[in-house]
């Protein structure tokens, strides 16, 4: 850069834009708790309250099921045998990306191609002649009328497959299975990935009432006794929470997204957007018109690379030549974006804990958290925990995050086992 000092100074100013102090965190947690109250008028809450029609598992669900997990990045199809007592066995499995640059992209295109892609993979794990019940973890906002019917409200995570919004995704899957001669596979349960995370963790660990996904997307579901006529798990679509304080970078990102105004929290927190946010800030500080193409995996790489190798990394990832000082500041920017993400996620979880705690009054609660950002991005877990302690004080000792075994795919099998 022409003027190293001025550039580093500008980066440091941008880093300040991503700081969230304790007071703001507490306000956000309180607002999240308020929005979880189902008695509030729709216009006062920025959370949705989608019913799941799934109760907590007993741990005794048993049988062999096909489990399909449609995440933001990958499709997984497993044959899972539930053995009861919280035990399970994973039989044949397939995992494939939904998009391979230059080859195919199922995140866009037609509904038929999309569901055929899924049905083909189901055909690969289903033994010939055998009948199966199938559970589908579907990581998008759906309105449900029963455990086996889910109407897609809108796509998120920059997906845009035509002909699915407003339709029952289970029907579309059944039709695709029919086209592939797989009528012996019966889709009987569909659930959001947060519900799935909650079921999977609760299968093994009682007193788990909150499920969160912190990955390509961000969301929380809670087993809410106060939520509706019958207690059940409620998908909050927490990525749409909007009582936040976005900075001008967030606003720029939102404006350029396929869904301006929507998913405000997700755009400040999730893996789909963190790299993009970073690219946008870095490009703007360098006076470039177009953002770089850094994704959150590369953001992790930046955070994990030692000082002496950073300049080479920035050259490789962004084609820029920077001094050691500048590279160190650019790394700090990556850390600041990730840290803010974790603090906001922690605040939402604290709000959810408060809400559940207000009527369950239990000694200890477990929160199931799954997802690539939470599991793989450096420092995220620690920052989430720190935020919980800042907000909840000593009550934070009553909350513990638990892993989700093989992930949200297990929840799909459990839900199929409930039906
Ligand atoms: C979707 C949620 C999902 C979350 C995590 C969001 O974009 O709207 O339904 O739970 O991503 O995958």
What does this protein look like?
The chain has 419 residues and is an alpha/beta fold. It is built from 14 helices and 17 strands. The strands form five sheets. It has a six-stranded mixed β-sheet with strand order 1-15-14-13-16-17, with helices on both faces. Strands 4-3-2-8-12 form a five-stranded mixed β-sheet, sandwiched between helices. The site of beta-D-glucopyranose has 17 residues, from helix 5 and strand 14.
Stretches where pLDDT is under 50 for at least 5 consecutive residues are none
Number of helices: 14
Beta-strand segment tally: 17
Structural class: alpha/beta
Quote the beta fraction.
15-25%
Bound molecules: beta-D-glucopyranose
The largest sheet has its strands arranged as: 1-15-14-13-16-17
Largest sheet: 6 strands, mixed
Based on CA inertia axes, which overall geometry fits?
Answer: globular
Q: What is the overall pLDDT average?
A: 94
Radius of gyration, in Å, reads 22 Å
Supply database-style keywords.
alpha/beta; 419 residues; 5-stranded mixed β-sheet
In brief, what are we looking at here?
This protein has helices spanning 4-17, 22-36, 111-125, 169-179, 193-204, 248-256, 264-269, 271-285, 296-304, 310-318, 324-360, 372-376, 380-392, 408-418; strands at 50-51, 62-70, 74-84, 87-97, 99-100, 104-105, 108-110, 132-138, 142-146, 149-152, 160-162, 185-191, 208-214, 218-224, 232-235, 365-370, 399-402. It is an alpha/beta fold.
